[in-house]
Write a structure and sequence with these properties.
51% of the residues lie in helices and 14% in strands. It is of the alpha+beta class.
Amino acid sequence: MNGLIGNHDYAKFVFLGVDNDADLPNKSKLLNYFPSGTFNIYKAHGYFSNSFHELEKFYAIKRNGFRADVTRGMKTYISHGIRIITDEPPNTFLALEFGASIVDFLDLSHSDMEELTILVDSWSQLTSTVNRVLACLDHIEQAKLTLNKNNLSDSKIENPDEKSLSLIFDNYGDLAIKQMVDRFDAWYQKVIWR
């Protein structure tokens, strides 16, 4: 069970990125936008920071693709999340007034957050593995430098079969990465608050 969603089956969220808490919509404004809603405002680095961190990883991947840094020191997009219990669609006036600060409108369930965690973990494993394999090319170049530096000779190191290397390393992992991107896309399409 995901604490950010609370004791509900699902919750709608407005995620914002603001530098100052004064830039957030207050509860009376939220009541104007969602008269029948109930609200909780959470800081991204507060009690539910693990949930926010999974979402941050998603946005890093969404914006940066394969080069996404999904480590603890990555760039942050979300400063706050407003949980809204409502059956209403996102409010256009809220979007107009706070549009520059709004990161996204999402409709999340506990299983959606579990699925996101699995997707992010799979992404991390895939990109880490692919990057390690592609680093072999750097080691091949490093081996040539080592030979030259130490006045050694080895034809396989000095002249590796470029065609064979190309067969192995060109587009290595691209298909798997595309499949992961498609999975993230499917997840996102499912959780957009419409």
